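User: When convenient, might I ask for sequence and structure tokens for a protein?

AI:
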Amino acid sequence: MTAPLRCVLVRQPPADVSAWRELGWRSEPDSIGLAAEHDALCALLDEAGAEVVIAPPDGLDAIYTFDPALAVDGGVVLLRPGKELRRSEPEAVAAAGIPVVARLEEPSFAEGGDLIRLDGQTLLAGLGYRTNQTGVAALERLTDLETIAFDLPHWHGEGEVMHLLSLLSPLDRDLVVAYPPLLPVRLAQLLAERGIAVVEVPAEEFETLGTNVLALGPRRALVVEGNPVTRRRLEAAGVEVVAYSGVELSKGDGGPTCLTLPLERG
């Protein structure tokens, strides 16, 4: 998840944003501002050297393209979101022409935000309201990756998203950005055992997506504008930071990792 980004899937925002309450967005997004911010995000990804594959609009939540699929060698595994209103999104990924190597089936469910490729052999998985043990076990069979699962905190409950990637994002083979107070103990221990340093996000910047950082390459980070303390700490750790405006894009609690599905790195 930290090698140079070569190809990435994004999805155009819909013009109709009327389902924002039903989907649990914090407030109603402005459809024109949403589209403008998305265009600017795509331009930054292009400038970073990535081929940007733009899928047509689907539902409002579908702009968070990381959740419906897990990128693997040869294509993607279509996931089965724990959020019932997003269950149609995996097939929309397939309809965008992305090769499908496997699918999760009922009663499994998993969302991409709960899945982190720590390295080429290791998949970290968060168990919570969006990803269950059956889904994690199925992914381990389908991918042959060593899968290590961690229980996620209840936090604000089932109605508010809490993914594993809400807690940390990889920046390099030996560096992550994270909010340590909510890290599962075994995960904190794993990072220490593997010599992975942590850029700590302060409490006041956790809920404004300070931990949600997309690696454009080793120690090259795309972040949402704001969170100045986190940005200074990233730069002090030798991370080159690029920021985009997420005033509208992030009203559904999605940052740069959520808005992108990296298809090719290296």
Observations:
- Residues 222 and 242 are 5 Å apart (CA to CA).
- The chain has one domain: 5-265.
- The chain has six helices and 15 strands.
- The mean pLDDT is 97.
